[in-house]
Amino acid sequence: MSDTILAVDETALLDRVQAPEGQGRPILDAATRQVVGRAPEHTVHDLDDAVARARAAQPGWDALGHEERSALLLAVADRIEAEAEPLARLLSREQGKPLNGPNARFEVGACSAWLRATAATPLEPEVVVDDGEVHAELHYRALGVVGAIGPWNWPLMISIWQIAPALRMGNTVVVKPSEYTPLSVLALLSVMNEVLPPDVLLGVSGDREVGARLASHPDVDKVMFTGSTATGRRIIEASAGNLARLTLELGGNDAGIVLPGADPAAIAQDLFWGAFINTGQTCAALKRLYVHDSVYDEVVEALAGVAAQMPMGPGLDESNVLGPLQNKQQFDIVAGLVEDARSHGARIVTGGAPAEELGELFYPITLIADAADGQAVVDEEQFGPVLPVIRYTDVDEAIARANRLDHGLGASVWGDREEARRVAARIQAGTVWINSHGGVHPMIPFGGVKGSGYGLEFGVEGLKAVSAPQVING
Ligand code: TXE
């Protein structure tokens, strides 16, 4: 009974945003491969129109002031909460992630939580010099129009990460969702726009060309991007033309180091979710695990034990906590990396071949033991349910291995806390977690180094990143 009601609600939400019958691009359910809905195919002209509208609306939005904007963001959070179940179901079907576990319901909940935290975070002017002769203050003003370009792995949450601070600081926002997951993002924007004034938040559902236009648009002041390093480079090139400020979150190949003395049974569950949250399709997931020889076999065994208990299948089935790969491109990358590892003598502990019985895009949790640096499955971002586990004997050597790639989003160290903190200080990554991996918090700055991009999101630093600093001197 309740299922029927929820299905109706989700359809109503979908109908608000999808293209009319006979138009648009079909979006397939990642698990069943049935059509979820029709993505509107907006053009570069539509994008130009959206930017013009956002530009026109920006002074009015800015003039509302922090208090009123924050109140509106809180009201938006409440609206999202009221629509949480249909949003989660649409997200689950389009993206593939299950309703349960740290997945679709969790993601929608995070959207409201992030909005509330952002609304509650003050960014006060700073007095930088006050010596009797000079009084100088640093204020933070709105930039103007922010372009938000998103990926398909956490489409709602990452959109909110981009939108919430930008709106809070008085900017208006044009969102270009990934072409793989436009419907859930457009549905989220539609819910938010029940509360927000017109043209403060606009969505344009288009392809890479539309994304490229948003990044290079002369009337866009800031681009927030989460996606691949290759696209990040193109956005940097585009910014030479419009001088847009950039925040670039370009994925990672996060290393974990398990120190001698770590307790395999105690850390196995957190290691598992660190690596396999969202079926591994997470920017700051654990993607290569270096384990000290003294605990290596026990860690591999404990991880395999946890993996065996985690049900995978279609997201709308309440029992599942792992889903399919979101798209065929990513499925092929994952399958190819496992085959390559196998051909190089790595030991497949669990998984290792497509789970065809579950559906076209399902790939089981795959632990690869005796993997080695230099193998593609270690050196390249898998972005899927695969974890290579590498043996080491010397901690200095493990640190050097963790640092040898051009990524630097996250990392983790497992074992004695004090020892782990000393190791963490030597790792080249924007965040190093101790005895956990990948947890984010709306008040803790998040961002990468090296090929993982630049710029910080979340908290006060995140607000500064969508602001124009202005000095008032005198
Ligand atoms: O990313 P793209 P894709 C990694 C993951 C994956 C790979 C490719 O390894 O295999 O990236 O994924 C828009 N100017 N991550 O193809 O191409 C595009 O339309 C402006 C890591 O999804 O970077 C989409 O909205 N925008 C990542 C967005 O950029 C452009 C999460 C991302 O697309 C553009 C997802 C251009 N020239 C994948 N070209 C993470 N950091 O978490 C495309 N776009």
TrEMBL record:
Keyword flag Oxidoreductase: yes
Known SUPFAM superfamilies for this protein? Answer: ALDH-like
Identify the keywords attached in UniProt to this record, alphabetized: Oxidoreductase
Q: Does the keyword Repeat apply?
A: no
Domain annotation Aldehyde dehydrogenase: ranges:
25-469
Top-level taxon of the source organism: Bacteria
One molecular function GO term is: oxidoreductase activity, acting on the aldehyde or oxo group of donors, NAD or NADP as acceptor
Which PROSITE patterns does the record associate with it?
Answer: ALDEHYDE_DEHYDR_CYS (PS00070), ALDEHYDE_DEHYDR_GLU (PS00687)
Task: Give TM segment ranges.
Answer: none
Family per similarity comment: Belongs to the aldehyde dehydrogenase family.
Q: What is this protein called?
A: Aldehyde dehydrogenase
